[in-house]
C-alpha cells in the first residue's frame, strides 16, 4: 500500500513528459544488503548486519559506520563479488518499473552506499542510465578493509539527483526518489515525488510518501 500524507496527485510528476527516477540499491532495487552478504562470507555477518540496521535508521553516521564494516572484510578475496552477485535478487517489479519508465522517455539512476563491484553488474542487467556507488580497495586480489575515494553519503545522493536532472534539462518537479534508509531522506524530500520504500521507522516517519508493499511497479500509480 502506498500512503501519501498530502494527497495532491495533480502536483506529482507525470509520465506525459520526460522525467528521472533515482533509487537506492540495497533493500530497494534489490532485496538484499550487499554489505551484509559480504559480512556473512567473512564470518562476521551478524556484527555487520547490526551496524547496517542502526546506520539505515539514522542512529549512526553512515560514513563512519561504513568504514567500520568494511574493515571487517579485510582479507576477503575479490572473487567474493561473483558469489554475492549470484545471491542477490531484483526486488519484485524493479525491472518492469524501469522498462515502463524508459518507454515514456524517462531515465533511471541508482545511488548506492554499496559497491561498484556489484552495482556495475546490476546496472548493466537493469539497463540503468546512471549509477554511483563506493569502491573497495584491493591488493593482490584481496580486500584491504578500506574504501577507495569518497564515500557515497546522503549529500552525494541528493547531489546526484540534482546533477542528473540538470543534465537532462528537467525540473526537479519531474523527479522521483525512492529509498529505505536515513541517508535517502534528503533526496526523498527534494524530489517531486519522494517515496520511503519498505523503509526503516525513521524514514517512514519523515518521508512524504510510503510504500510498504515490495512491488516497485506501484510507483507508477502516482505517475499516470
TrEMBL record:
Database matches in SUPFAM superfamilies: HAD-like
Domain of life of the native organism: Bacteria
Organism listed in the record: Bifidobacterium ruminantium
Class in the EC hierarchy, top level: hydrolase
UniProt GO cellular component terms: cytoplasm
InterPro entries found in the cross-reference section: HAD-like_SerB (IPR050582), HAD-like_sf (IPR036412), HAD_sf (IPR023214), PSP (IPR004469)
EC number, UniProt record: 3.1.3.3
The protein's required cofactors: Mg(2+)
Keywords for the protein's UniProt record, in alphabetical order: Amino-acid biosynthesis, Hydrolase, Magnesium, Metal-binding, Serine biosynthesis
CDD domains (UniProt xref): HAD_PSP
Protein family membership: Belongs to the HAD-like hydrolase superfamily. SerB family.
Keyword Magnesium: yes
Catalytically driven reaction(s): O-phospho-D-serine + H2O = D-serine + phosphate; O-phospho-L-serine + H2O = L-serine + phosphate
Protein name from the UniProt record: phosphoserine phosphatase
Pathway(s) per entry: Amino-acid biosynthesis; L-serine biosynthesis; L-serine from 3-phospho-D-glycerate: step 3/3
Secretion signal, residue range per the UniProt entry: none
A matching Pfam family: HAD
Listed GO MF terms: L-phosphoserine phosphatase activity; magnesium ion binding
Entry-linked Gene3D superfamilies: HAD superfamily/HAD-like
Coiled-coil ranges per UniProt: none
